[in-house]
Write a structure and sequence with these properties.
Strand content: 15-25%
Number of helices: 7
Oligomer: single chain
CATH architecture of the largest domain: 3-Layer(aba) Sandwich
Strand order of the largest sheet: 7-11-6-1-4-5-12
CATH superfamily of the largest domain: HUPs
Number of domains: 2
Number of strands: 12
Helix content: 25-40%
Shape: globular
CATH topology of the largest domain: Rossmann fold
Structural class: alpha/beta
Length: 256
């Protein structure tokens, strides 16, 4: 099978995010960048499918030069090759522009199934996978927690509140991965060494024969307001402290 996994590089979930003084974006200095956690599930599912049915896994990523590290991480996990879309026009691109670039790269290679994370943890839009499917004219199966395929059709489970959908589709199709689909593997030392020699094709938008135009733009970023300091209720009598706590919750916090 020809399997594609789309990945995005995002700030580490433990990184301290600061907004630039002018609100134009985040201050990227000192940030550790990692593969989007939901994309890890997509890569793992692609690798499991390769192990089951054979074939190869191609990683596709749109991002600046530093995104090569994330592609190499996926290659170290076991993917075979990568495509890196590196173009200044993609800086600050919205979901539509990003999906347009990904679709242009994927159109140029054979594919039977495409895996994406169900959303990225930085912009949290959850739209790229669905737009990608539309641009490629493919069925889309989103927020998937279980997947089975025989190489011709795919059956997935999609959770809904209090129940689950079981959806079956012909291939090729786009599948977006949710937490619970699998447990992503760690890259082994031999895998890391092999990843250095695996091919990654770096392309810009001109090479892909496409231009992108964002449909939306972030006007300004504003950090959340600082939380007021917490209060400590002093005293030795639990009953008195409980009464004071109830009073504060009722009169100040207004939650009871």
């Amino acid at each position: 099978m020809n399997i594609v996994a789309c990945v995005k590089q995002v700030p580490d979930t433990e990184a301290q995010i600061k907004v630039k003084p002018d609100g134009s974006g985040i201050d990227e200095s000192g940030i550790k960048w990692v593969m989007n956690p939901y994309d890890e599930y997509g890569v793992e599912e692609a690798l499991k499918l390769k192990e089951k049915l054979g074939g190869d896994v191609t990683i596709v990523c749109a991002g600046p030069a530093r995104a090569m590290e994330t592609i190499r991480t996926a290659l170290a996990m076991g993917a075979d090759k990568g495509i890196h879309i590196d173009d200044p026009a993609l800086e600050g691109a919205d979901a539509y522009a990003t999906a347009t670039a990904l679709a242009a790269a994927i159109k140029g290679i054979p594919y039977d199934v495409i895996f994406c994370g169900q959303r990225a943890i930085d912009d949290d839009s959850g739209q790229v996978g669905a737009i990608l499917a539309e641009l490629l004219g493919l069925p889309q199966l989103t927020v998937v927690t279980k997947e089975e395929t025989d190489g011709k059709t795919v059956k997935v489970v999609r959770p809904v509140e209090g129940a689950a959908f079981v959806i079956e589709s012909s291939l090729p199709a786009v599948v977006t991965a949710q937490k619970g689909l699998n447990e992503p593997r760690y890259a082994s030392l031999p895998g890391i060494m092999k990843a250095k020699k695996k091919p990654v094709d770096v392309k810009n938008l001109a090479a892909l024969g496409v231009s992108v135009e964002s449909k939306s733009k972030v006007a300004k970023m504003v950090p959340p307001p600082a939380r007021p300091p917490g209060k400590i209720i002093a005293g030795d009598d639990p009953a008195v402290k409980a009464a004071e706590l109830a009073k504060l919750l009722r009169e100040e916090a207004k939650v009871i």
